[in-house]
Amino acid sequence: MRKQRGIRKTKEYYFDYSLVFIVLFLLGFGLIMVYSASSYEASVSEKLHYDAAYYLKKQASATVLGLIAMLVVSRIPYHFWERFAIPAYIVSVILILLVLTPLGYEANGARRWLRLGVSVQPAEIAKLAMILFLASFICRLGKGIRSTRGFMTVLCVPLPICALVWFITENMSSAIIIFGIAFLMLFVASPDYKRFVIIALVGVAVVFLAIFLFKQLEGSELLGVRGARVLAWMDPEAYASGKGFQTLQALYAIGSGGIFGKGLGQSMQKLGFLPETQNDMIFSIVCEELGLFGGIAIILMFLLLIWRFMIIANNASDLFGALLVVGVLGHIAIQAILNIAVVTNTIPNTGISLPFISYGGSSIMFLLIEIGLVLSVARGIRIKE
Fold first, then answer.
1. Is the Cβ–Cβ distance between 36 and 59 less than 8 Å?
2. Start-to-end Cα distance in the chain
3. Most exposed: 130, 198, 274, 323, by fewest CB within 10 Å?
4. Tens digits of residue pLDDT in 196-221
5. What is the pLDDT of residues 45-78, one digit of tens each?
């Protein structure tokens, strides 16, 4: 009898082509929609030299640079970045404070950017820094996270950054995202879910209390901008000429699109009716031009992206890698959910972009760097044959 040959087991690096395809699809679709949503405004703007492709060119440049950064980061072992966790946290604080200096500048009524040779939004750096710092901190804490002291310490880590982003740059949506990233990473790392139920109940109670107080202050000078947005969310038609204007125009765009839309480039709301069409409100233009079908298709692509993140996190070679992926998952998922919720008036208007699709160089750059981190973690997965 012939001797049966043994099956030799070899190990190969894992590369998630599905993740790369989804990201490239969202980027390509985003460039198309940025041009479609912004071409009219840019073509009639003297400031932009009547260049219909102005926003497209800037977005395409940022996308190319982001893809190069993604490829570089994906080739570097992710544990290399662990040594930069604390410096990244400190640098993000410094950059936010620099917004108050002459390096900071105002755009679209908000002072959130820095001129550092290129335009940079510190809040985007803070999101990445928080993911890196918390992944390292939770790993170092180990089983100590099970104690009340350890749990509360991790929960308090993002609060200084959140406070700085909120009060200095007046960017409440980014502050919510940063805290949401930390909350999700803590949820994955902590085995005690009772604490999260209590926190969630307290959070819901605070929200309802805030809504009640804003309602009582209606018409008062104490209401403030945030309060006015909450009241406009509850009854946008009553504030149609003020805080409810953008929301109503977005809803008109979504409603007029129907099932299959008016056709790519055929939006009416982008012709000066809906503010920030290429930024926060780009999802409404997607729905107007491509209909409910296009809107659902984009949501499905984000769900597929989150599913790939979960696959990589579940198979990561260690806790640090898994937490990095969970942090990126939390960032993209929370931001996408909040943007779509704002556009559909499910929550009050907070001014937040749609990942990979909305116009914004800083956002695209740092999102692609985060994808590079995820791909680096994926490369650490070994396949046996």
1. no
2. 27
3. 198
4. 888 889 888 988 888 888 777 776 66
5. 878 878 889 999 999 999 999 999 999 999 999 9
